Amino acid sequence: LLKDRVGQVEEFVEALARVAAGGTVVDPEVVRQLLRRHRDPLEALTPREREVLGLVAEGHSNAEIARRLVVTEAAVGKHIGNILAKLHLPPAEDTHRRVLAVLTYLRA
């Protein structure tokens, strides 16, 4: 339960009784947040990160993205690193994270 719900005594007592009887309780707000995350994986990205990912999806190199956005290549690399982290795409030998990020972008 979220701590602001614990103040609602009747709901808290019901949840406590359910857990004591071997059941489980998940706060409805937690469920809503989890479902919302699955709907739009790009929700966690900043507007600039979405812009960078859009340019990656168009096939642009980091150098070209930097030129178009008037930033350094290092800044683009940082944005791409943040995008990959926020999309939960850890390094792996058998996948290309940049392609997976583009696929996520196109599906969203």
Features:
about 110 residues, 2 domains, Arc Repressor Mutant, subunit A, about 0% strand, mainly alpha, elongated
Helicity range: 55-70%
Q: Provide the gyration radius in Å.
A: 20 Å
Percent of sequence in beta strands: under 5%
Structural class: mainly alpha
CATH architecture of the largest domain: Orthogonal Bundle
| Tally of distinct domains | 2
What letter string, H or E per element, gives the SSE order?
Answer: HHHHHH
Shape: elongated
Cα(first) to Cα(last) distance is 30 Å
Average pLDDT for all residues: 88
Count of runs of 4 or more consecutive helical residues? 6
CATH superfamily of the largest domain: Winged helix-like DNA-binding domain superfamily/Winged helix DNA-binding domain
CATH class bucket of the largest domain: Mainly Alpha
Low-confidence stretches: none
The name CATH uses for the topology of the largest domain is: Arc Repressor Mutant, subunit A
Number of strand segments:
0
Biggest sheet statistics = none
Describe this structure in words.
- The structure is a single chain.
- The longest helix has 14 residues.
- The mean pLDDT is 88.
- 63% of the residues lie in helices and 0% in strands.
- It is elongated and about 60 Å long.
- The chain has 108 residues and is mainly alpha-helical.
- It has 2 domains: 31 residues, no CATH class; 67 residues, Winged helix-like DNA-binding domain superfamily/Winged helix DNA-binding domain (Arc Repressor Mutant, subunit A).
- α3 packs across α6.
